[in-house]
Amino acid sequence: MTVLAPGENRPAPGDQLTVTVASSASVDVSALLVNTAGTVRSDADFVFFNQPTGPGVVYRHGNGGPDVVGVQTSALPADVDKVVVTASLDGRGPATFAAVGTLTTTIESGSTALTFPIPGLTTESGVVCVEIYRRNGAWKVRAIGQGYDDGLAGIASAYGVNLDDDPEPAPPPVAPASPPPVYRQPSQPAQQPMYASQQGAQPVHSDLFDPSHAEVNGLGIQKQGGKMVKVGMNGEVMARAGSMVAYQGDLKFEALGSGGIGRAIRQHLTGEGVPLMKVTGRGDLFLANSAADVHIIDLDGTDGLTINGANVLAFDSTLRYDIGRVQGAAGYASNAGLFNCVFTGRGRIAITTHGSPVVLTVDQATFADPNAAVAWSSSLQTGIKRNDSFGLGRLMGRSTGEASTLAFSGRGFVIVQPSELPPGGLIGGTGGGQQAGTGGGLFG
Question: Percent helix, strand and coil across the chain, each rounded to 5?
Answer without folding.
Answer: 10, 45, 45
